[in-house]
From TrEMBL:
Keywords: Hydrolase. This is Lysophospholipase L1. One of its GO terms (molecular function) is phosphatidylcholine lysophospholipase activity. Residues 48-219 form the SGNH hydrolase-type esterase domain. Pfam families: Lipase_GDSL_2. It comes from the Bacteria. It comes from Amycolatopsis azurea DSM 43854. InterPro entries: Ester_Hydrolysis_Enzymes, SGNH_hydro, SGNH_hydro_sf. The keyword Hydrolase applies. Transmembrane segments: none annotated.
Length: 241
């Protein structure tokens, strides 16, 4: 039986071309890609790796984007947080491993935010999980057996910039990739944090209606911070396994 996606291919292609032509191209966040949130004691070293959301598209500076917001959340208990944002617009999981990982500095916690470009490029769920696993193994070889948070693939079925049926097809594929990535939580010190569809309120998107705006990044950081704190507190236990 011919799949629905194959039957809709001409429509999907036309919609994809139109979206690419009409969607505003927003720049990456301005300013330094590393910084320090002041506080007491030795800073927790946070590194965030990923695609355009880590590049800060949709925010004016990294302070308003995912990495800066997450650093602020982790510093709420009074501790210092040193952060590094390693993002590239248009990158998939394999590109991040090959091009950004060599820039990674020593860290106590790494957050990985990927999946949208792997979805758009129609990568299989198996390939996405394999590429994420390669990334995790490579980063631990580089900086040690540190905890890793896998941010869930954003549910693209809620992206306002995407028309139907393209939105439905990419929404289903992004969900499949996210479910496959969640299986990596079986690895010691790795936690997958799915993004609830309800988090994607249209009002939280940037001007392009594709990337988060500052409010979207704030909500996402709040969600990731709770898991990150717990993972950091459990680090000594799982590292001894």
């Amino acid at each position: 039986m011919i799949s629905r996606a194959v039957m809709l291919a001409p429509i999907l292609l036309a919609q994809a071309v139109r979206v690419r032509r009409t969607t505003p191209r927003l720049p990456a966040a301005a300013g330094p890609v590393s910084g320090l949130v002041a506080g007491e004691g030795r800073p927790v070293r946070l590194a965030v790796l990923g695609e355009s959301t880590v590049d800060g598209v949709g925010a004016a500076t990294h302070a308003e984007a995912l990495t800066g917001r997450l650093a602020d959340e982790l510093a709420r208990d009074g501790g210092a947080v040193a952060w590094q944002a390693l993002g590239k617009t248009g990158a998939n999981a394999r590109v991040v491993r090959e091009e950004l990982l060599p820039l990674l500095e020593p860290a106590d916690l790494v957050v990985i935010a990927l999946g949208v470009n792997d979805t758009i490029e129609l990568h299989s769920a198996t390939r996405y999980r394999r590429d994420l696993l390669d990334l995790i193994v490579s980063l631990r070889r580089r900086i040690g057996r540190i905890p890793v948070v896998l941010a869930g693939v954003p549910p693209m079925g809620r992206f306002p910039a995407l028309p139907r049926p393209l939105r439905d097809v990419l929404g289903a594929r992004s969900a499949a990739l996210d479910a496959s990535a969640a299986r990596l939580s079986s690895l010691p010190g790795v936690v997958h944090v799915p993004m609830p569809a309800a988090m994607l309120d249209p009002a939280t998107f940037a001007e392009d209606r594709f990337h988060p705006g500052p409010e979207g990044y704030r909500r996402w950081a709040e969600q990731l911070a709770d898991v990150s704190r717990q993972l950091l507190s459990d680090t000594n236990r799982w590292q001894k396994r």
